[in-house]
Amino acid sequence: MLIGGGPCRSAAFLQQELRHQGINADVHDGYGLALVSVWVGLVVWCDGRRFWWRTGWNPDRHRVIYAWHPVNDPLGAARRVAMRYAELRSRQTSEPS
């Protein structure tokens, strides 16, 4: 599927695919990027060519680890984001209060 129309439109396609998987997300647009706010600690950025999101931390290099996915496959991106979402939710519910 080819997607045109810039970052916000691509982010809206991702939002729609996430919704089909039962995940509500908000889209925010500005400064040439769109953000898809999914969960605490899970924001997906979009520049119109790719989606990217934080997946972890590399303690040896003191750097954030990111995953990315091309915008022409919002379903594939949504599946990967949904896996990260499930991981973050399970961590939150397993932490003691």
Explain this structure.
The chain is α+β, with helices and mostly antiparallel strands and 97 residues long. Helix content is 37%, strand content 35%. It contains 2 helices and 5 strands, in the order H-E-E-E-E-E-H. It has helices at residues 6-20, 74-94, and strands at residues 26-30, 33-39, 42-46, 50-58, 63-70. Helix 1 (6-20) crosses helix 2 (74-94). The protein is globular, with a radius of gyration of 14 Å.
The main pleated sheet reads as: 5 strands, antiparallel
Strand order of the largest sheet: 1-2-3-4-5
User: How many strands appear in the DSSP assignment?
Assistant: 5
Strand content: 35-45%
Q: What is the count of helical runs?
A: 2
Give the helix/strand class.
alpha+beta
> What's the shape?
globular
Given as residue ranges, the uncertain stretches (5+ residues, pLDDT < 50) are none
Radius of gyration: 14 Å
Helix-strand sequence: HEEEEEH
- Proportion in helices: 25-40%
Average pLDDT:
92
Question: Kindly, what is the distance between the CA atoms of the first and last residues, rounded to a whole number of angstroms?
Answer: 44 Å
